[in-house]
Design goal:
Bound molecules: nicotinamide-adenine-dinucleotide
Number of domains: 2
Order of helices and strands: EHEHEHEHHHEHEHEEEEHEH
Oligomer: single chain
Helix content: 25-40%
CATH architecture of the largest domain: 3-Layer(aba) Sandwich
CATH topology of the largest domain: Rossmann fold
Largest sheet: 6 strands, parallel
Distance between the termini: 35 Å
CATH class of the largest domain: Alpha Beta
Number of strands: 11
Structural class: alpha/beta
Radius of gyration: 20 Å
CATH superfamily of the largest domain: NAD(P)-binding Rossmann-like Domain
Shape: globular
Length: 303
């Protein structure tokens, strides 16, 4: 089989952000409302700081209002819950995102449950989880939503396809399975205890890998012509790139799929970086616009 088609998530995400910006302009001119996203960061985790910075920047670039709330590592749960209450009641805030992980003294589930489900643009509130599984109007977690958008754009109708989701986290694996089921796929959810994972993968027309193990899914696990969505983001040593000033090897990002091997067999595949990653923030912006329309009784933006 020839090399797989590369599904360009970076380009797709740029187009989605343009559509969001068009909708923001429409909402402003039709209703005078400016959609707003509040992002809450507790602590100094470098990766979280980068994510929050990117989210705020892209929010503003799409014409929306960005509200950033940063707290130090020692902040207590009551302070955070008081802020969530304030944001829930602020009409200028249509979406609330609390960057995870939170420090140990804060009960993550308690904080996520305190967010108004209609402003829960991360889709982690149990009300939105329930709506997703029962076919209601939910806000869907951004990363799996981005994967499903890419799959539908590339494959069209997913009905009847065998899909395997590797990973059962609340953030990616489980909502991904719900989305594929909603598209009438026959879905297998695989995890660390799954027996004969390579064999189960080989039966799948769609493979979504969300494990967090570098290049675990090998080329000979893939059914010829299958579509492979690689959610994993893993940093590995790349001594071929040379050394840093402190003598440590330089690093590079890889997914959960052995890209070179899988691309020989698959029909299509997302690269890492440049595949699923950029879709996550674009879908967050999309969710904020959707939430804003619902809160203000405006027509669904259809994006
Ligand atoms: P997680 O650690 O919460 O879950 C990993 C899942 O993989 C678990 O359900 C576990 O059962 C399963 N697993 C572990 N070892 C396995 C094995 N050997 N075989 C089969 N299954 C196994 O991780 P997560 O939050 O779901 O994230 C998964 C990956 O996706 C990570 O690399 C993460 O960085 C990446 N991620 C990317 C984005 C993005 O924006 N692209 C967003 C979220 C997560």
């Amino acid at each position: 089989m020839a090399d797989a088609t590369v599904i360009d998530g970076k380009a797709f995400a740029a187009k989605l952000r343009e559509k969001v910006a068009v909708e923001v302009t429409r909402i402003k001119s039709e209703s005078g409302v400016t959609p707003g996203l509040a992002v809450v960061l507790v602590g100094e985790d470098p990766a979280s700081k980068v994510y929050v910075g990117s989210k705020a920047k892209q929010t503003v670039e799409c014409g929306m209002e960005s509200f950033e709330h940063r707290f130090d590592e020692s902040t207590d749960e009551a302070t955070l819950l008081a802020l969530i209450d304030k944001l829930n009641n602020d009409p200028a805030v249509n979406g609330i995102l609390v960057q995870l992980p939170l420090p140990d003294q804060i009960d993550e589930q308690k904080v996520l449950s305190a967010i108004d489900p209609d402003k829960d643009v991360d889709g982690f509130h149990t009300t939105n989880v329930g709506r997703l599984w029962t076919g209601g109007d939910s806000l869907v977690p951004c990363t799996p939503f981005g994967c499903s958008v890419l799959l539908k754009d590339f494959l069209g109708n997913l009905s009847g396809k065998n899909a395997i989701v590797i990973g059962r986290s609340n953030i990616v694996g489980k909502p991904m399975a719900a989305l594929l089921l909603a598209e009438s796929c026959t879905v297998t959810i695989a995890h660390s205890r799954t027996d004969d994972l390579p064999g189960k993968c080989r039966e799948a027309d769609i493979v979504v890998a969300a494990v967090g193990r570098p290049e675990m899914v090998k080329g000979d696990w893939i059914k010829p012509g299958a579509t492979v969505i690689d959610v994993g983001i893993n940093r590995i040593d790349a001594p071929e790139k040379g050394l840093n000033d402190d003598g440590s090897p330089k690093t590079r990002l890889v997914g959960d799929v052995d890209y070179a091997g899988a691309a020989q067999v698959a029909g299509a595949i997302t690269p890492v970086p440049g595949g699923v990653g950029p879709m996550t923030i674009a879908c967050l912006l999309r969710n904020t616009v959707v939430a804003c329309c619902r809160q203000n009784g405006l027509a669904d933006p259809g994006i």
